[in-house]
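User: Predict the structure for this protein chain, please.
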Amino acid sequence: MISNLDSVQTKAKGDFAEHLAQETEKAQQAKDDVKLKKTCQDLEAVFLNIMMMNMRKTVDKSKLVDSSQEETMTSMLDAEMTKDMAKAGGIGLADMLYRQLRTPDPVSNKSQAPK
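Assistant: Here is the predicted structure, written as structure tokens:
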């Protein structure tokens, strides 16, 4: 009877340790996914900012106010606007990068690569 109880306790401890290890790995993976998603959004914001700068170069500048302060203010405005655009979904670049870079779910094993 006592040996049976010891074996049950040992099994319970092993199951708990295994479960704890799995949950810890899931939590770490979730934290990594949050970092990856944020990094992808930041990259999309940089891309949109470069695109916005090049688009502004194509528009003729006004002769009314022509100063370096205006250029600085415009670049800061573009940087913040493109960050907000990326957070709101942007052009979909961040989502596409995130889907390509995240670690695949071991249960699904679905590859996104063309066959």
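The chain has a mean pLDDT of 79.
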